[in-house]
Design a protein that fits this description.
2 helices, single chain
């Protein structure tokens, strides 16, 4: 789950990027985006010191849709006066 491949059956010249935007990649990127991108062109802060490991893992799971979806009730419509 969460491993991005641009094409399941790549055609000639079509790149695949296994692991890109997957669980481990996203976790490392959230913790320290400078490991992946030049910090001169990246304005995303590192969150390793701002979030707990549990919070980072929850965020990554949400980003790769690794959770059981729930059906929440629609908000009640406000009655017109």
């Amino acid at each position: 789950v969460g491993e991005t491949e641009l094409n399941e059956e790549p055609e000639a010249g079509a790149p695949t990027r296994p692991g890109y935007a997957g669980r481990d990649w996203l976790k490392a990127f959230i913790e320290d985006p400078g490991k992946h991108y030049n910090m001169d062109n990246n304005f995303m802060p590192a969150f390793k010191e701002q979030l707990t490991e549990k919070e980072i893992n929850l965020l990554v799971r949400w980003m790769i849709k690794d959770y059981v979806p729930t059906k929440l009730a629609e908000p009640a419509q406000q009655k017109e006066k």
